[in-house]
Specification:
Layout: E1 2-3, E2 10-11, E3 16-19, E4 24-25, E5 29-32, E6 35-38, E7 42-47, E8 50-55, E9 67-75, E10 79-83, E11 90-93, E12 118-126, E13 132-135, E14 142-144, E15 148-151, H1 157-161, H2 166-175, E16 177-181, E17 186-191, H3 194-206, H4 213-228
Parallel strand pairs: 4-8, 11-13
Antiparallel strand pairs: 1-3, 2-7, 3-6, 5-6, 7-8, 9-10, 9-12, 10-11, 12-13, 12-14, 15-17, 16-17
Helix pairs in contact: 2-3, 2-4
C-alpha cells in the first residue's frame, strides 16, 4: 500500500492515510473502498504492515475486544448507558448483560446494575460512527464492589500491567490487593494497603519511560509496606 501520510504525520478525521495495497488497518482508522482514513485528529504510526492513528488528546478510544472499567450512568427499559471515561459512551443491552432469562415486564434492571455502579465490561463492537456496544458475557466482567478507582493515561496501561503481567502482579503481592487495570486507564484497587497500591500505580505511570523500573518498584514497595506495618 502506498503511504499517503508518513510516520508521525498529523492528520484530521477523514484524512486519507494509505491508498490501495496490503497495509492492515489498526486502531484509529477505518477502511472505505479499499482506502484507509483517519478517525481522529492525531499522529500516524506504522508498525510492520499495519497503520494506526493515535489521538492527540490522549483520551481512551474504544476498541473491539478491550476490557475496560465503566460507570453506569442511565438505566432504561432494556439497556444501560455506561461512561467509559472516553469521548464515546457505551451501551449495554439486556441480551449482553446476563446469561439468565430476564423478563422486562417483571424484573427490575437496577437489580443487576444501577446508576453509579462500577463494572468491568468488554467492548463487543464499535461502529464506524463510534456507536459502542458492550457485553458482560466474559469471565473477566463483573460488578465491582467497594474498593477505589484511580485514573492513568490509557497509553501507560501496558507498562502498569507489565510484560506478562509482572508489574501489576508485583503490586498485588506486595500490597495484598486485588487490582483490575482497564484498557481505558481506570484502575480498580481493593485490599489491605490500597493507598500504597494506588501510589504505586501512579508512580509506574510517571516513570513508565525509564529503565529498571520493575526492580526499583520492588524496593520502593518494600519500603512503603514496612512503613505501614
Amino acid at each position: 500500500m502506498s503511504k499517503v501520510k508518513e510516520d508521525n504525520d498529523i492528520v484530521a478525521p477523514g484524512d486519507l492515510v494509505a491508498d490501495d495495497g496490503e497495509q492492515r488497518p489498526g486502531s484509529g482508522v477505518y477502511v472505505e473502498q479499499g482506502k484507509i482514513y483517519s478517525k481522529f485528529t492525531g499522529t500516524v504510526k506504522y508498525s510492520g504492515d499495519s497503520v494506526q492513528v493515535q489521538p492527540m488528546d490522549g483520551r481512551y478510544i474504544p476498541e473491539e475486544g478491550d476490557v475496560v472499567i465503566g460507570e453506569v450512568t442511565r438505566v432504561s427499559y432494556s439497556r444501560w448507558n455506561v461512561d467509559l471515561d472516553s469521548p464515546y459512551e457505551g451501551t449495554l443491552n439486556i441480551s449482553e448483560a446476563s446469561d439468565q432469562y430476564v423478563d422486562l415486564d417483571e424484573d427490575d434492571l437496577t437489580d443487576f446494575y444501577d446508576v453509579g455502579d462500577a463494572i468491568v465490561v468488554k467492548i463487543d463492537s464499535v461502529s464506524e460512527s463510534m456507536d459502542v456496544d458492550l457485553t458482560m458475557l466474559d469471565d473477566r466482567c463483573r460488578k465491582l464492589e467497594d474498593g477505589r478507582i484511580v485514573n492513568i493515561s490509557p497509553h501507560k496501561v501496558p507498562r502498569v500491567i507489565g510484560r506478562q503481567g509482572t508489574m501489576v502482579q508485583q503490586i498485588n503481592k506486595k500490597t495484598n490487593c486485588h487490582i483490575v487495570v482497564g484498557q481505558n486507564g481506570l484502575v480498580w484497587i481493593h485490599g489491605q494497603y490500597p493507598e500504597v497500591a494506588a501510589e504505586a500505580v501512579k508512580k509506574v505511570e510517571e516513570e513508565a519511560h525509564t529503565s529498571g523500573l520493575t526492580d526499583r518498584m520492588e524496593e520502593w514497595l518494600d519500603e512503603k509496606i514496612e512503613g505501614e506495618e
